[in-house]
Amino acid sequence: MALDSICLAAVVEELRTSIQGGRIDKIYQPGPQDVVLAVRGSSGNVRVLLSANPSHPRLHLTSLERENPDKPPMFCMLLRKHLTGARILELEQPYMERVVIIRLEATDELGDKVSRSLVLEAMGRHTNLLLLDGEDRITDCIRRVEGDITTGSRQMLPGLFYRLPEPRFGVPPLIERELCFRGESGDLAPAVRQLWNAVKEKHSTPIMLLQDGKAKDISFLPILQYGPSVELREYATFGELLDDFYEAREQQERTKQRGEDLLRTVKNARDRTARKLENQRRELEATHNRDRLRQLGDILTSNLHALEKGRSTIRLPNYYDPEGGEVEIVLDPLLTPQQNAAKYYKDYNKAKNAESALTIQIEKGEAELSYLDSVLETLSLAEGERDIQEIRQELADTGYLKQRGKSTKREKRVSGKPIEFRTDKGFRVSVGKNNSQNDMLTTKLAAKGDWWFHTQKVHGSHVILWTEGREPDEESVAQAAALAAWFSQGREAGKLPVDYTPVKFVKKPAGARPGMVVYTTYRTLMAQPDEALVKRLRVK
């Protein structure tokens, strides 16, 4: 859901306490529609996310680490030029509007104090983030808009005076239903005004609504209308609530945007491999009846005296039949009797040789299909451009993507970092996000005494529990296994068998695909994928 106007007001009050009077130290733009301000405030250093993503626009304090591009976008450079070192004077939000204005005091090129403003319009498809000068002219915006009378979109272009959108007072649907559930009827405006005033006086509670364990909605007050079918989970701050609520869906969206071409390439390759395998299996099935061809050749050979050229079929005694019946044999009328018999023997030998060749091809095809499935799984774990680039390199190395000519040799290879966790007993755990990281963890970084975890017969990440000379406790082993279960294709299947063994028993065969290993002398335990555990143990 989008952040409604009253919940946004609660977030603004939380921000006002943390950043009003503070200074902007650094500015980042981790995504095309997201800006992060590092603010030095009275309560310490904090980060503020301003997202102009139409699917989930918002601003709030954030503790999530976001990967920044190697080259900052132009809008980020513009904000750095005008706002680095600026002091935050005030945060404004018009009544019941999803618009927030951050008033700032900055310093221009001559060292004079000047007024600047950052405006977030969190209004669905019309969402935008704008930088205004002291006269409220638009310096620039994250999304320039030419304007269209038919759609109601306003012009948003550098040099124009900024004007607020037309007021559209409306009760958020969730709150409207909740007020009605609590007995309000008729004109809801007074009740809404009361809620607004309560929020502005900091009487609000960050709450996530969960249904069947999955995030359903967010609110600033307990939502009672759903009864016991929906769990209400309180958070300490709105920043933590919004980080938790949007993190998973934003990661999926970023992966989809940045890895769309890779996803399409891998899916196409996987579909081709699957179709080829299906055809080969049918051909192999056909070879299983090859003895019948040899028998027909034997019958023809023993009855050459009864054959003559030009016949298309013949019925002969079938001495392979225990009951002594006859068999009808198809002939080529253009061939002699001897040539027809020889043709059956030739087809028999061809089927015999085909069985051997097809068996080898099917084994290779199944290994290729398994590898491509593993790449699809790693694409779902990608958390940023670096992870996507690492998978791109892997696909180029394995021949699924074309190399970029001579320039590729000069390009620096990207090497991403695994996801890091710490068990409750203090053991470090690393999880590979792609096959390259899996290989690096298992075959290069881990010591022989460290423990390796992987879901049994299901594609997933390599998980390393670093022992550092200690014997892992049962709880740490169980938590590492739960991580392996979560970072696998079987995440939604409930409990999964997870194999684990010291790294010394894990080997990579010569010529094996990235991420492929064999292992021996292992133990298995059933592990439950646990999202709450993943979030709790992850090292930020």
Structural class: alpha+beta
- Which residues form runs of ≥5 with pLDDT under 50? 406-410
The total beta strand count reads: 22
Report the C-alpha radius of gyration, rounded: 33 Å
What is the overall silhouette?
elongated
Distance between the termini: 26 Å
Q: Spatial order of the strands in the main sheet?
A: 15-16-18-17-19-22
What fraction of residues sit in β-strands? 15-25%
* DSSP summary: helix tally: 13
- The overall pLDDT, averaged over residues, is 90
Helical amount: 25-40%
Could you please describe the fold and organization of this structure?
With 540 residues, the chain is an alpha+beta fold. The chain has 13 helices and 22 strands. It has helices at 5-19, 74-83, 173-181, 189-200, 238-258, 260-287, 290-302, 337-381, 385-397, 407-410, 435-445, 474-486, 531-537, and strands at residues 23-31, 34-41, 44-51, 58-61, 87-92, 99-107, 113-121, 128-132, 138-141, 207-211, 214-219, 231-234, 313-317, 326-330, 419-422, 428-431, 451-455, 463-466, 496-502, 506-507, 518-519, 523-527. The strands form six sheets. It has a six-stranded antiparallel sheet with strand order 15-16-18-17-19-22. A five-stranded antiparallel sheet has the order 5-6-7-8-9, with helices on one face. Strands 1-2-3-4 form a four-stranded antiparallel sheet, with helices on both faces. A hairpin with a 2-residue loop joins strand 10 (207-211) and strand 11. Helix 1 (5-19) runs parallel beside helix 4, helix 6 (260-287) runs antiparallel to helix 8 and helix 7 (290-302) runs antiparallel to helix 8. The radius of gyration is 33 Å and the shape is elongated. The protein starts with a helix and ends with a helix.
